Amino acid sequence: MAIAVRNEGAKVNSNINVTPMVDVMLVLLIIFMVITPMLQKGVSVDMAKANNPMPLPDADKEDALIVAVQRDGAVFFDSQRVSAEELTQKVKDRVQGRTNKQVFIRADARAKYKPVVDVVDDVRSAGVDQVGLLTEQRQNPAKPPQQ
After folding, report:
1. Is the model's pTM score more than 0.85?
2. Under a CB-based contact definition with an 8 Å cutoff, are residues 41 and 68 in contact?
3. Each residue of 79-129: pLDDT tens digit?
4. Domain 49-137 belongs to what architecture?
């Protein structure tokens, strides 16, 4: 009498199938590529360019108070369009109880001078100690004249 031996171990496939993982990763990559531009904080303005801007790392924080002034003089506080009276009250409400009373202004490079000064006055009247004007680094800084 003979014993029948089955060799089932020879049929096992030990290769890892990475195709589903690659599919999921590509879908996630596409989602992040579409969503990332929408995550821009605040209103889009073409800020003035400077040769030697002073870094303001506090402006990148989550709880930073940023006021944007667009080219046509429209004022935005936290992505919401506001008037001068609303701006003063909203800033006053947000800085109440804070030790660091600092507001950053992102003004368009072609905005008129008066709306920007009015925003600075409104922010100061809300009790803010420090006002920062945000600029961008100029790509090709002009060389200073040599004497």
Report:
1. no
2. no
3. 889 988 899 999 999 888 888 888 999 999 999 999 999 999 999 998 888
4. 2-Layer Sandwich (3.30)
Beta strands in the chain (DSSP E): 49-50, 65-69, 75-77, 80-82, 102-107, 130-133, 136-137
Task: Provide the angle, in degrees to the nearest 10, between the axes of the packed helices 84-95 and 113-125.
Answer: 40
Q: Per DSSP, which regions of 83-122 are E strands?
A: 102-107
49 CB contacts (<8 Å, ≥6 apart)?
Answer: 109, 135, 136, 137, 138, 139
Cα separation values, 36 from 31, 41, 60, 65, Å: 8, 11, 16, 21
Beta bridge partners of 68: 76, 106
Q: What is the pLDDT of residues 23-33, one digit of tens each?
A: 999 999 999 99
User: 69 CB contacts (<8 Å, ≥6 apart)?
Assistant: 45, 75, 76, 105, 106, 107, 108, 111, 115, 116, 119
Is residue 52 classed as helix, strand or coil in its secondary structure?
A: coil
